[in-house]
Design brief:
By secondary structure, the chain is an alpha+beta fold. It is built from 2 helices and 9 strands; from the N terminus they run βαββββββαββ. The strands form 3 sheets. It has a 5-stranded antiparallel beta sheet with strand order 1-2-4-5-7, covered by helices on one side. Strands 3-9 form a two-stranded antiparallel sheet. A two-stranded antiparallel sheet has the order 6-8. The radius of gyration is 19 Å and the shape is globular.
């Protein structure tokens, strides 16, 4: 299993406050001020659990005083529906799971021993919403960073995922995002 996490603050300063809360006993940060998603993926041999390899799972995360919780869509609804801007209309079975998250800073992780390492990187990207900057600035930066850390002869950076913005931001490209979307879990990969 590999689990990717996506976390960012909705306003400047939120990430620093989240780090203080998570690792230094700072004040709690309201869930509405940050975006946290988890995307586990699975690798298994043919058989009882190979269905896990044919689906995409996305969980909605929340930091709570008793730890982190990731909520996934359960199996209690035959046809789940999610409305981006009208959650009172959602038809979902959401199941929250506590998840232990620890800071790896200070672990002195080694890519050959733990399979990952932490590397500092100051990006020249000035607008994270600009696809041209992500492709033209960030992707080459990451390729160079991974190459320097691993000693790889060549590094390929895959394109970023779909960037989504709230309607209130004015960046959504849509006047009405309230139509139902497919549930965020258990979507067969061959239709994505």
């Amino acid at each position: 299993m590999q689990n990717k996490g996506f976390l960012w603050g909705r306003e400047p300063g939120v990430m620093d406050r989240l780090r203080q809360w998570a690792f230094a006993g700072g004040d709690p940060v309201p869930h509405a001020e940050y975006y946290l998603r988890a995307q586990p993926s699975f690798e298994t041999s043919k058989g009882k659990h190979d269905w896990l390899t044919r689906h995409i799972f996305i969980g909605i995360g929340e930091r709570r005083p008793d730890g982190n919780h990731i909520a996934y869509s359960g199996r209690g609804v035959e046809r789940p529906r999610y409305y981006a801007n009208a959650h009172h209309r959602d038809v979902l079975d959401i199941v929250s799971h506590p998840m232990r998250v620890e800071s790896a800073r200070g672990l002195n992780a080694d890519i050959d021993r733990e399979g990952f390492t932490l590397a500092l990187h100051d990006s020249a990207v000035s607008d994270w919403r600009d696809p041209a900057q992500i492709a033209g600035v960030y992707a080459p930066e990451i390729a160079a960073l991974v190459q320097s850390v691993t000693g790889a002869d060549e590094v390929k950076v895959t394109p970023h995922g779909i960037l989504r913005f709230s309607e209130k931001s004015g960046l959504a490209g849509s006047g009405n995002n309230s139509h139902p979307a497919h549930a965020s879990t258990l979507v067969p990969q061959d239709i994505c």
